[in-house]
Amino acid sequence: MRPILLGVVAAFFFAFTFIFNRAMDLSGGSWIWSASLRYIFMIPFLLIIVFFRGNLRPLFQEMKARPGQWLLWSTVGFGLFYAPLTFAAGYGPGWLIAGTWQITIISGSLLVPFFYETVQTSSGSIAVRGKIPFKGLSMSLIILVGVAMMQMEHMNQLSLQNVLFCVIPILFASFAYPLGNRKMMEVCGGRLDTYQRVLGMTLASMPFWLILVVWELATAAPPTMEQTLQSLLVAVSSGVIATVLFFQATDLVKDDMGKLAAVEATQSLAVPYALLGEIVVLSAPLPAPASLIGMLLVVAGMVLHSYVSRAKEVESVTKKIGEIKR
Fold it and tell me: Where would you find the membrane-spanning parts of this chain (predicted)?
C-alpha cells in the first residue's frame, strides 16, 4: 500500500509540470528553457540533501565505475523524456498533455520483456525474464479510449500537424521515462538510495541539457525572469519532490514487475490534478463533456490496470515456481 500512496502523492506534484509548462508556453517562453532550467535548478537542492545525508562519495564512486551507462540511461530517462514533453506543451493544454502521457502505462508494460524479475524458490532466488502482462494491457485499452476521446476535441480545434506535434513527442517520452528509470535501477543494483539516484541521473543528463542551452543562446534570447521563476517551481515540485517520491515507490517494488506497473499507473491521477490546476491557476475553461468522460476512463483504466497487474503477478510467480520445480 505504501508504494501506491507514494505514487499518488507524486502524481499531485508531477501535475505542476503540465500546469507551469503550459503557462510558460502561453507567455511566449521557449520549451528548451522550460526543460533545461528544471534540471539545472534541481542540482543544488539534491546536492544539499545528499550531502547532509553523507552519501555523496558513494554516489560519485558508482558514477565513476560506470560512466557510460550513467550518461546513456540518464539522458534517456531524463533528457529524452522531459524535452519532448515540454515541446508538446506548445500544442495542447496541460490536462491534455497529462492525459496523453498516461500511454506510458502501456509503454512500460511493453518494456517488461527487456528486464528480469526476481523469483523466490525453495532453493533460493533466481532471475526470470519478464513477460508482457497481456491482461493488464487489455485493461489499458480503456486508457487508450479515454486518451482518444480527449484528443478528439483537440483535433476538432487544431490542424493534424499540430495534433501530431502534441502526440508523437509524448509517445516517444512515454517509452524513454520507464526505460531510463528501470535501466538505472539495474545499474545501481540497490547500492544507492533514491536521493542519490535522482542526483546522479540529473548530473549525468547535464551534457544533454547544456547542449540545448548553448543552442538556444546561439539562436534565440535568454529566458525571462517569469519563466526562470516558473522553472524553479517546477524543479522543486516536480523535479525534486515528485521524482524522489516516485523513485522511492519504484525502488520498493523494483523486483516485482506487476507491482511496478501498478505504481507507474498511479501517475494517471496527474490528469485530474492538472485539470484542476489549470482552472485555478490559468483560468482555463472546463473541457467538453467528451473530454471529461475520456479523463474518467483514463483514471478508471489506471485502477483496473493496477488490480489486474497485481492478480496476474501472483498467478505468474506461482506458475514459474511450479515450472522450476519440474
Answer: 31-50, 70-89, 95-116, 136-152, 158-177, 198-217, 229-249, 261-282, 288-308
**pTM flag (> 0.85):** no
- Ranges of H-type helices in the chain: 2-26, 31-52, 56-65, 67-74, 80-88, 94-101, 104-110, 134-157, 160-188, 194-204, 206-219, 225-234, 243-252, 257-265, 270-281, 289-325
Q: Are 23 and 233 in contact (CB under 8 A)?
A: no
User: For the packed helices 80-88 and 2-26, what is the interaxial angle rounded to 10 degrees?
Assistant: 50
Sorted by where each begins, the domain ranges of the chain are: 2-325
Round to whole Å and give the CA distance between 176 and 178.
6
User: pLDDT (tens digit, 9 = 90+) per residue, 207-249?
Assistant: 999 999 999 999 888 999 999 999 999 999 988 889 888 888 8
How does pLDDT run across 124-161, given as a tens digit for each residue? 556 666 676 666 667 778 888 888 888 776 667 667 77
CA angle 79, 81, 84 (to 5 degrees): 95
| 158 exposure class (CB count in 10 Å sphere: 0-12, 13-18, 19+) | middle
Q: Quick check: helix, strand or coil at residue 27? A: coil
Identify whether the C-beta of residue 179 lies closer than 8 Å to the C-beta of residue 108.
Answer: no
End-to-end Cα spacing for the chain = 34
Give residue 224's identity as a one-letter amino acid code: T
- In 3D space, the residue among 76, 75, 84, 83 whose CA is nearest the CA of residue 204 turns out to be 75
Rounded to 10 degrees, the C-alpha dihedral 12/10/154/26 comes to 70
Residue 144's contacts (CB-CB under 8 Å, 6 or more residues apart) are 103, 106, 301
